[in-house]
Design goal:
The structure is a homodimer. Chain A is an alpha+beta fold. In chain A, about 25% of the residues lie in helices and about 35% in strands. Chain A has four helices and four strands, in the order ααααββββ. The first copy, chain A, has a four-stranded antiparallel β-sheet.
Chain lengths: ~120, ~120
């Protein structure tokens, strides 16, 4: 957590126990981008297998609570919508809600992703 | 790029030049999460100074094109809206559009962030 923060999100509440205690997080918190990157790893290595790979166009991300040191995360993915491309008959956009939960089953991240996927014409 | 992808987004188009050439990216592409993490680093180290730090609640992220090996990125931040909290007189939500541009001034990421900020009651 601290190594990721030192490289990508060097703020006191991600780096220092004491500073974090006095921050809005009331204790050391992972960078949301670390949660996002770990979620991607779990998603790539897990059950969401898409032909051509996971190609993200973007999406809506929420961090309802931070990931903490020692947390164990898992990911649940739900297909929300499949939107065929209007211009390209062999493409569609897949809307997937990727929820990252800690060991207490509390969501630490909800990412409603738009993925570019191949489609039969 | 490859080190980040190997840890967090191990897909062929982020890891292998030849596989990437034959993918939708038509060449090696950084993970979107690497672009996001690098953007956070530029934002934290740059001009967007907020009392209490940058505390992200979430937001809308878009990757209109990938970051490529050798790209030089910079970030432009624009305050879009300030929404005072209804329940907490000393808090507000700051909507900021954080655009990450490559050396050709092409956006590689547009993140419309919601930040939790302190406010005078």
């Amino acid at each position: 957590m601290k190594a990721f923060a030192a490289e990508f999100d060097p703020q006191p509440f991600h780096l220092d126990q004491e500073a974090a205690r006095q921050s809005i997080f009331q204790g050391l918190a992972a960078s949301g981008w670390h949660t996002a990157a770990a979620t991607m790893r779990l998603t790539v290595s897990g059950g969401l297998q898409i032909a051509g790979g996971l190609v993200g166009l973007g999406g809506e991300i929420e961090w309802p609570r931070p990931t903490r040191a020692g947390d164990t995360l898992h990911v649940e993915s739900e297909i929300v919508e499949i939107i065929p491309s209007r211009s390209k008959p062999n493409q569609a956009i897949l809307k997937v809600r990727i929820t990252t939960l800690n060991q207490h089953s509390e969501p630490v991240q909800i990412f409603t992703a738009k993925l570019l996927v191949p489609k039969r014409p």
